[in-house]
Amino acid sequence: MSEHIINHLSGIDRNMGGLIRAVGAYRLEQQALCHPYESLAQAIAHQQLHAAAARSILSRFVSAFGSEGAFPTPDTVLATPEEKLRTVGLSFSKIAALKDLAQKTIDGIVPDRDTLVKLEDGQIIERLTEVRGIGRWTVEMMLMFQLGRPDILPVDDFGVRAGFQYTYGLRKMPMPKVLALYGERWGPHRSAAAWYLWRAVELKRAGTLPAPLEQIVLPRLARKRRVNKAAKKKGSKAGRKVTARPAASRAMSKAPSARISRARAPKAQPATARKAGARTPKPKSRARPLRPLKTTLPKPARRK
Question: Which of 24, 44, 46, 267 is the most exposed place for a label (fewest CB within 10 A)?
């Protein structure tokens, strides 16, 4: 089976073939498949924590609320107050996620193990991501390492994107949607391609990653059409309703402005000019004096 996967990926992608020859055989280690509720609860506990710290919290969680070393049931999680769950090291956000997981397990949204293996990849992702705190990447890891699904490409994974950048000699990591489009050629063995891209990061750190054998052109995403701002503004103005102004507002608009009336008023005179008997000078006109027109009179005729 491993040889068939290697031949398929090497034949369809030269750069991937060079990476496969440097890494060797495909060895994805499968984990024991437990109840989906327990797997997701462990994933919630590990979020944003070091593995050792998460294992310590899970150990205290099982010891405090489990029965004879068994994982706490959904009913137990729902019945336990938040204050008691906080004593084992769980944050408020993780407690809310665990309680939501417990409720959705009781409601049947999170299925049991026998039901889960019969569902398609998309159906599992759609149902399990309804749980608070569970994203697509978490479900994809379950599909790869517990269910052994062969055609999963976690494009949001940092290691997969970095491995693609190193293997194909790119200046930066590809966007998830671009990687998903390019990775369609690896189907139906995209889980193996993701595993090899993880190994590429290790080879890069060790300095043994081979150079890319060919230069690639990444697919381009369809851009959304941009609306002209001027046309958009004109359309928004056209859609506005014209409301009639009240009569008082129209009268105020017809009245001369205070600014004009203030400009025409004469300037205030100093206090010395306002004494008894003092004449108040007239305000100076700003108009320039008219210049006399130059006229040319006819010269008188000479007498003979």
Answer: 267
- pLDDT tens digits, 151-172: 999 999 999 999 999 999 999 9
Which residues have a catalytic role annotated? 157
Q: Which residue has the tokens 């705190």?
A: 133
Q: Quick: pLDDT tens for 276-296.
A: 555 655 655 565 655 655 545
Q: Considering the domain 36-145, what is its CATH architecture? A: Orthogonal Bundle (1.10)
Question: What is the four-CA torsion angle of 164, 165, 170, 174, rounded to 10 degrees?
Answer: 80
Token output for 28? 């994805």
Write down the residue that tokens 């939501």 correspond to. Answer: 100
Question: Cα–chain-centroid distance for residue 74?
Answer: 32
CA 31, chain centre distance (Å): 32
> Does the 2-28+152-206 domain belong in CATH 1.10.1670.40?
yes
User: How many other C-beta atoms can be found within 10 angstroms of the C-beta atom of residue 175?
Assistant: 13
The total of other beta-carbon atoms located within 10 Å of residue 266's CB is 9
The first and second tokens of residue 112, run together, are 């049991």
